[in-house]
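This part of the workshop introduces the protein records we will be handling. A learned vocabulary of local backbone shapes supplies the integers on the structure line. Getting from the letters to the tokens is the skill we practise here. As an example, a complete record with its sequence and its structure tokens follows.
=====
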Amino acid sequence: MSSLEQETITEGAVLWFLTDDERTSIANSLDVEKSTLLDLKGNVMNRARATCTGCGKHSGLDDMVHNAVEAGIHSNTFVLDVLVNGPQSMSPAHGLKCSRCDSEYEGLWRWDADTHIWTRD
């Protein structure tokens, strides 16, 4: 995995830099123009990205968005608001499925502390 896709900032806190493929996937999941997400740089997670055992895709913010929308946990509008304006509260750790093949990534996933999502300066 490229170091351009993530950077460990402290133990238990990893910056996941949003890739162009992830941005496209998120826009498709939320049925919005990709340009809506251009200011989004990435998110801070409790662990490094994983590789899907089903298809080889690296875990990403697109998987989290896909899981929330496809499972009906959150509406497109709610998720877009979180991505653009930041979350209003902490989310509990939960399982994560690959948005490409629906295989389950190993372990539990959550935002890290108060630094959930950041946008370009």
